[in-house]
Amino acid sequence: MGQGQTRAPLHHFVNEPNCQLEDAWDGFVWATPGLRLLQGFPDTKVMVRSDWTKDRVAIVAVGGAGHEPSDVGFMGRGLLTAVSCGDVFTPPTAASIVDAIAAVTGPAGCLLLSRNYLSHRLNCSIAVGIARTQGLSVMEVCVADDIAGKLSCCEESDVRQSRGIAGGALVTKVAGAAAEAGLSLEEVHREAQATADKVWTLGICFDSCSMPGRERSRMNANEMEIGLGIHGEPGLTRWEADITANELVNSVVQQLQRQLPPEGDICVLLNNLGAVPMLEMMVLCKALMISPIAPRIKLLIGPVSALTSLNTNGISISVCPLDALREERLCTPVACRHWAEPVRPQLVPKLEKTELAPRSSSPGVHSPPSHNNLAEVALRQMCRVILESVSELDKIESRVGNGNCGHNLGVAAQLLLEALNQKNLPLAHPGHLFWRLSEIFRASPGALPTLLGIYFSNVAEVLTDCNEWYRPAVVKALQYKIDVVHRIGHARPGMRSFLDALVPALESASEGADWAAVARAAARGAHATATMGGAVGRAAYVPEALRRGILDAGAVAVSLAISAMARPLMGRLGWDSFVSCTDDEVFWERFERGRLIGEGSFGKVYAAHTRDVWSFTDVVVKITEKQQEEAGAMEFLGCDILQQHLILLWLGVSKPNIVHMLEVCVSPERTYYVMESLSGPNLEEWLSSKTEIQERLVAILVKQMLSAVREIHAADMVHRDIKPENFVFANVASLELKLVDVVGTMCGVFDNARPQKLAGTPLYVPPEVLEHVFTKGRLDTQGIKAVTTKAVDMWAIGVTVFQMLSGKVPFEGSVQSKTRIGSSSSSGSPENRSEVAKLARAQSEPLSLDGSETWEFVSHEAKDFLRSLLRHEPEHRLCVDDALAHPWFAIDTGSDNPIQRNSHAACSSLRDFFSETGQTEHVVRKTLFLVRHGEAVHNIEEQAAKKVAQLQAEQLGLHPKSPECKAMMDAARRLVLNSQALGDAELSPAGKAQALATKVAVAALIRQGKVPEPTGLLISPLQRTLQTASIIFPNHPNAHVRDLLSEKKTQFPCDNRSKIRNSIRKTFVNMSFSHLERFDEQRLWFDSLEAEENNADVRERAATFVQQLRSIRDDCIALVSHKGFLRELERGPFGQPETSDAKKPGSEFGNCEVRVYDVTLAPRGVFATFRYGG
C-alpha cells in the first residue's frame, strides 16, 4: 500500500481478502506433496492428485472455501481425486467443475459429490450435462444431512431438502473406498447414496465466523445457537449459554436419535467447526461417550476438524448407522494427512502436473456483434450501479446468509462491462443478447448469478426469432419464463427472492407504464421482502423472527438494476453526469456565475451560464453548505439505497409543472443543484400586482400547481413547503407555472420512510404539524412521521388558493412569517413560538367564506374546493387526484365579474390580463372538432379473443373479475394484437356504419347553426382514421394527413401504419400526403427502441399540435384521430379532468364520437371551452 493510503484493520492473517484462497492453495500445495493445481489457476480453482491414472472411478468434490480441511485436505488414495473450489463460502462455477471432471475422468467414470445448496445443485447440474455431452460418464451424490432443516419445516410446501454439512465427510470416505476397491461407477454411486441417505448432523455454536474486514458476531455474549449451517448463517433457535457440556451433548443426541433406527451400531463424527480449543473438544468427546447413544457407538471419528466454518466457535455431531460393508469402507486405510483414521496418513510422492486439453466452448447462440446505443447505455448503467452497491448488497445479505450477493453480482457486472468494452455483444438482437448474458452470469459465482443465467437462457429461446427491441415481446418473454426460476430455484413471489422485485416490475411494464413507474414497482416489491414470512435459499433456514425487517439482497439488486436502466430508457443517456463529485474550483470552471437571485437560511441561488449541460445555456444554480444542509438533503441521506436511487431517478427526468433538475454536484463543503432557468416572476410577486383577478384564471393556475403536486405524490414523496413563492412562471409571456424548490424540504412517505425533521413555512403548515413544531423551546421530533403525509401539501394548496382569490391570509390574526420550520432560525425563539401560537389559535377558528364583498363573486364550487382542502382532519382533505377532478375545474367560471382582491393594481378580466403586455393581437381563436375513428377489424378480433379467454377461465372455476381471469384475457388480447394479419387494421362493417351515422349527425348540427363547418381537416395516417375521415367528410378540399395525430406508438402491427403507396393515394385521392412523406424522410428513429411511447409522450405530441395550430389559417378544423391522442389532448393542453362519466369531456372517446371545442391561443396560455359532445 502506497504512502498516505489507509485501510480498515483486517484482524486476520491475510494479505488481500479477495486473494485469500489463491494464497492459501499455494501454501497448501507447498506443504502437501502429491497435489497439483490445474493450468489456469487462480481463475480456475481446481486441485488434482498427481498420482491419478484414471484406472478407477474418479471422486470429485465440489464446494466453497472456508471449510478446510474439507475438501482439499481429503485428497489422496482412498478418498478424493480432485476438488473444484470457489471463493470463501462461494461454490465454483460450472466451468470450473467441468475442468475438474475432464482432468480425472477415465473409462470408469466419475462421481461428483456436493452439498445440498441451491448454487451447488445448479452449477453441478450444468457441469454434469456438459461433461456428458463430451462423452464422459458422470453421476452425482448430493449430501443433505442437516436435521435443522427438518426441524424447522412444518408444511410440505415449505420443505426444502436439508443442508449438506459435516456428514458429507463420511459419504466422501465411503465413496473413496468403494472407488479404490475397483467398483463400477453405478456401484460406487449406490454405496455413496445409501450413506448420504442415512447420515444426520446437528451443529451448535457460541459465536459465528468472521471474514476479513467484516463484523464478526451477531450474537450476544450470553447466547448460543442450535441448528446452524456452515456459512455463518443464523441457527434454528437460540439458547441461554449457561448450559454444561454434558447437557449440551445430551440435547443434541436426543435430536439425532430420532433419525436413527432403534437398534444397531453407529458411527459418530465429532467435528470442530473451527475455533473450539482442543481441550474443550476432548471434554465434549467424554460427554458423547457417556451420552444415551454411547453403547451403540462402534466407530468414533474425532474430535477432529473435518469440515469447518472458518473460525466458528462451535461443533457438529454426525451419526450414521453401520452395516458390515459400510464399516469396512470407513475403516479402509487412506493416503491422506488430514483424514482422522486409526492409522497414520501416508504421503503421496510428487508427480508432474497433468496438462488438460482446452475445454470446448459452451453451447448457445453466438451471433456477430451488433450495436444498439440505447441497449449499451442501459447495460452500462446497470453494471455501474451494481458495482457501486457491492458493499451494501453484501451487508444486507450477511444478516441472513453468507454475505456474498454483492460480490457475486459484481463479478457478473465486471464481466459484462468487459464484454461491452470489447464490443463483441449482439446488442441489436434481443434473443442473442440474452444468450450471451446467460453465459456471462453462469460464469459468475453464487446462486443468484447462476439462476439468472439459466433464466436468461430460457428467455433467449423465446426471443430467438425476435430481431428488434420490441418492448411487449421482451416483457412477455421475461414473464413467460418466470416458472423456470420456480422449477429450478424453488422460488415464487412472496418467498424473499429477486422475483419479488422482478415480477411487479414486469407487470407494470406489461401494462404500458413508463419506466419510472416500473422502477417504483420493483422498489416496492423489494421493500416488501422485509415483511415476508416465506423464504427460499439460505434465508429459508433462518427463523422468520430473525429475518423480519431485513430486505432480500437479490430483490434489492434487481430493483437497483431496473432503476439504473430506466434512466437511459427514459431518454437520459448522459446520466453519468447527473450526480457527480467535484470541487468548487472545477465546478465554477464549467459555469459562469451571474446575479444573485435569492438567499435564504440554507443557501443562495444564482443565475449562471453554461455550454455543456444538455441543450440549455442559461441555468440556475442553488448552493447549500454542508454544515447547513436543508431538510430535504437530510431526508435523502436517511433513505435506504433503493429509495435514494428512486429519488435521483425522479429528479433527473422532466415532469410537468416542475422545474427541470439538470445536474447535482457535490463538493467537500457544498452541494450544487443546477436547474433550468425560468424568466417569469414567482406567483407571490405576480399576485401582489393584482387588485382584481378572474376566478377562471385562478383555476387555470391552481390546476398547474396540483399537476406538480401530483407528480410528487405519485413518487411517494411529499413537498412540505408548497407556497406561492415557490411557483414561478416559465417566462414573462406565459401562464405556465413551475414548482422550483424541489430539493429543499421534500421527503419520502414510503412505508419504511423515517422523516428526520419537520419542514415548511408556518403560514402554509397544517394544524397537525404545528402541534409538533415547538415544545419547551426546542423542536419536538415526536410524531414527525405520523404528521408527515400527503395531506400536508393539500392544506398548503388550500391556503394558496385562498390568497389567490381574496388577497389575504385565510386565518384572522395570523402572521405571514418567512421563517421556515426546521431552519436554524426556527429553533424556538420566543418571538417565533409566539407567532406560531397565534397562527395555531387562528387555525382553530371556523373558516368563513361569506360576509364580504370578495367572496360574493366567488362561485359555490370554488368555496367548496377550499373547504375540502382546509379541513383540520388530514384524512378528510381531498387527495390530489380528487382535487383535480373537483367540479370547480369543470365549470365555466369565466364570468364578466372580477373578484376584488386586497392589493394595489388592476386586472379586471381575462382579456385585460392578456392586454397587459400589449399582445392582444396575438390571441388566436379556433373551433376544433375532435373525432375518433369507428370500430376497426382488430377491435372485433380483440373482443372475441377476450371473450373466449373469459369462457376458458370460467371453465377453470375462475371468477370473471379475478386477477387470473383478467391476466388470461389480457394475454389473449395481446396475442391478437401481435398478429401481422391485422397490420394497419381497416374499419369493420360496423365501424363504417358508425361513420355514416356520425356524418348525418354532424351535417345536421352544421345545418342548425350549432357548430360551424370545418374548413380544414387533419387526419392520422392509419387506415381506420383515413376511412373514417373520407366517410364523415367526403371529398373535403383541404384534408391533410399528419403523423403528429397518430395513435400511441405501441409497435403492435395494428398500430403500425402502412407505407405511402400509390394504392393509398388512389383510395384517398383528395387527401394531401406531402407533409407525411417529408416526415418519413427524417424519421430515423422509427425502428429504434425509442419508438414506443407512453401517455406522457402522447401528451407532449398533443401540446406540440396545439402550438402548431397558430400557423394554420383555418378557423374551424376537424381532427380525425385515435382515443389515446384525443384523450391526452383533452386532459393535457385542454385541461379537462379525467372522468368515467361518458357524458362529460375528459372521459374516453367512443367509436366515431365527436366533441367540439372553442380554443383560445393566447401568449400566456391555451384555454379550451367545451361546446358540444355526442
UniProtKB/TrEMBL annotation:
SUPFAM superfamilies: DAK1/DegV-like, DhaL-like, Phosphoglycerate mutase-like, Protein kinase-like (PK-like). InterPro entries: DhaK_dom, DhaL_dom, DhaL_dom_sf, Dihydroxyacetone_Kinase, His_Pase_superF_clade-1, His_PPase_superfam, Kinase-like_dom_sf, Prot_kinase_dom. The keyword Secreted does not apply. Transmembrane segments: none annotated. GO terms for cellular component: cytosol. SMART domains: Dak2, PGAM, S_TKc. Keywords: ATP-binding, Kinase, Nucleotide-binding, Transferase. The keyword Kinase applies. Residues 373-567 form the DhaL domain. It comes from the Eukaryota. GO terms for biological process: glycerol catabolic process. Residues 16-339 form the DhaK domain. Residues 591-889 form the Protein kinase domain. This is Dihydroxyacetone kinase. Residues 816-843 are annotated as: Disordered. GO terms for molecular function: ATP binding; glycerone kinase activity; protein kinase activity. ATP binds at residue 622.
